[in-house]
User: Fold this.
Amino acid sequence: MTTETLQVTSVTTKANVYFDGKCVSHDLQLPDGSRKSVGVVLAAELSFGTAAPERMECVGGACEYQLEPQGPWQTCEPGQSFSIAGDSRFNIRVAEAFHYICHYG
Amino acid sequence: MTTETLQVTSVTTKANVYFDGKCVSHDLQLPDGSRKSVGVVLAAELSFGTAAPERMECVGGACEYQLEPQGPWQTCEPGQSFSIAGDSRFNIRVAEAFHYICHYG
Assistant:
């Protein structure tokens, strides 16, 4: 099931812009005090590093992703998610757009 | 004063992507039931139409804007805003990024 809306308490108004705008996200604070972000990756092939562990939940579009080092390329579609360890990297290929919620920790 | 965070109750997780990603926004619902959006326009010269009246509040970066028909080009910087009538158009020029809150009505 796709998460169409997310209950939050506040949003950071200034966007995070990565890779010349190929990835744009906004940070959110939740009622339990935790933080998440919502964002979109546009048509691109990009490599991201993590600090904390992350879970990327697809809420629209799709991507292919690869966990480093050299995991298999897998597809992530609406309602699906994938988890990345902290202090590691993942690669992502997007044909049109990949809309996501990033869950931390 | 720049609005760095906005108190909201929910966010629509899927982004609005306009002009091949030159403008990306997320819709928000506020505690009073009203709707706003937060977004960013990247380096571009774009023309937008309005349905309801809008007020664009700059929360980062800057833009030049022109209200149609043929208003003067004016600058909008953090803490400033400009208002657009309903059912009309405005043009915007951005050199790097223009981060905004869009207030409706």
